TrEMBL record:
Domain AMP-dependent synthetase/ligase intervals: 64-375
PANTHER family with a match to the protein in the record: LONG-CHAIN FATTY ACID TRANSPORT PROTEIN (PTHR43107), LONG-CHAIN FATTY ACID TRANSPORT PROTEIN 6 (PTHR43107:SF10)
EC annotation from Swiss-Prot or TrEMBL: 6.2.1.3
Reaction(s) catalysed by this chain's protein: a very long-chain fatty acid + ATP + CoA = a very long-chain fatty acyl-CoA + AMP + diphosphate; a long-chain fatty acid + ATP + CoA = a long-chain fatty acyl-CoA + AMP + diphosphate; tetracosanoate + ATP + CoA = tetracosanoyl-CoA + AMP + diphosphate
Name this polypeptide is given: long-chain-fatty-acid--CoA ligase
Gene3D superfamilies (UniProt xref): 3.30.300.30, N-terminal domain of ligase-like
Any one GO BP annotation for this protein: long-chain fatty acid import into cell
Stored PROSITE patterns: AMP_BINDING
Lineage top rank: taxon: Eukaryota
Topology versus the membrane: Multi-pass membrane protein
Gene Ontology molecular function: any one: long-chain fatty acid transmembrane transporter activity
Signal peptide, first to last residue: none
Short name of one Pfam family: AMP-binding
Amino acid sequence: MFFPLGWMTAVGAGILATHILQKLCFPYFWKDALFLLKVIRYGVRLELYKLKSEVCTVLDRFIQQAQRIPDKPFVIFEGLIYTYRDVELRSNRLAHVFIQQANLRKGDCVAVLMSNEPDFLCVWFALAKIGCSIAFLNTNIKSRSLLHCFNSCGARTLVVGSDAADLLDGVLTTLLEDNIEVWAMKSNIEHPRVQTLLDKIDAASDQPVTGALHRTTNIKTPTLYIFTSGTTGFPKAAVISHLQSLKADDVIYIPLPLYHSAASLIGIGGTIELGATCVLKKKFSASQFWKDCRQHNVTIFQYIGELCRYLSNHPKTELDKVHKVRMGVGNGLRQDVWRDFQNRFGNIKMCEVYGSTEGNLCFMNHIGKIGTVGRSNFIYKLLFKYDLVKYDMVRDEPEKDRYGFCKRVQHGETGLLLSKVSALSPFFGYAGSKQLTEKKIMRNVFVKGDAYVNTGDLMTEDNDGFISFRDRVGDTFRWKGENVATTEVAEVLGLVDFIQEVNVYGVEVVGHEGRAGMAAVIVRPEHTFDGEKLFNSVVRDLPGYARPLFIRLQEVMEMTSTFKQQKFHLVQSGFNPSFISELLFVIDYKLGSYVLLTEPIFQSILTGERKL
């Protein structure tokens, strides 16, 4: 068939014009389309599971991979290689020990207090194989918080890692009195009422337990309780259902703690989904990071913002760009650190992910634009309904119109992120009291009867749909990559005999991610401030990231009109002794006390000479 040249020219011109128009008006069309296709495909997959009453969990996928690629390395840890078969057989043995000697049954909840090690995965999979739900405990939490975790998730059994037994000092007696059975990943232990596991594994069968124990037909069945500091009070157990566990990311290097959902669900879950190999680190080390990446040909790593800052601050070498890493997946990366990191270590795509452990909304920076946590468009908003509303920082609450409804912000304005609760985006909430879940939900936001999850995060969305994180509100701030619940810290400080009232908040420190803990305190009449006593109390009862670095003495505590402690002005004034007339103190680990914060000490903090 013959086509006139003029006609073909017109078609070509039309195609070119369409391409130019798309580039100018919709520059991210194809990237958005591919990303949304993956989201929709994932959603269809879940709906098919519902229709078929079948659920493919992380454990199911691991068993499939252990049968498909048994000899492939699954975990590399401290120079040792553990194949998929190794972990499968060891978790089978542990499952038989848990059934026969620990008398665990399907439906029981078991708490796990372990550091990063291969046996963390073996214990996790073993308990899942016998149908137990599992509560991952943060190894940084102290006595009172640890006991609270048991009360909230209903666990009657605790499994302690080989190097975590010392964490039970001060609470073991209380746990045993509450009839909590304690099992340690050790061959022997001094305490007669603590059971050991390592001496029982070798004699146990490595044959699989019956699949009926772990098989589930309900995609919303809770499988994990991952403790997060949430926004107020003690840590709360975020219910992780099979719906949220079905995640796949190409993640190899895992330096984050496994008790966090990022490492366990995205890191380990993604590795299993792909049938890949992960390099598991007990703890992050800036000096070992790139050596590990080069040694094991790492292509993708997980991060938090602080991790990238530590790497950028580490002494430069000629090998900084000698590696195969092409992508990082994580959150909390500041723009300046982002640029420095890429300039120094090469054009590594940093994929920022936004979402809380318990939340019902997730953003992903699939474009790779520096400083943003994600990108949205009208199709995404149809799938996941969210809004940014105006927030009164002084009153510490959303602004309302004359009808009592929230007010949406304009593009480019900072607002509180709310995520709508619906059948498509359910909110599973927290284990324990329903009040914990209800406090996270805002009702009658725009119309009577609607419900939204209050993320507690201030965000902005520009005209192109790029979403950026601005700050946290309420009673939580982040420091050293961890959420710090101010009310929990305040309760610990309130137990000190000379403190009458305390208000805990976070302040910005130059050169540091997040906010450093600071507490405004009122000293009781006829008492004096005792820096050494306060130091001993916070070191004993709080993890390192939650300890207030600064103390501000006050005579009167400022309150809001609704009788809430006022934090806004305290946060704004920071910790500069030149501008604050009240006495300020800073924590000093060498002296074991809180010492007077002088102008020279303040300057040494700003220059980085004094480490925090």
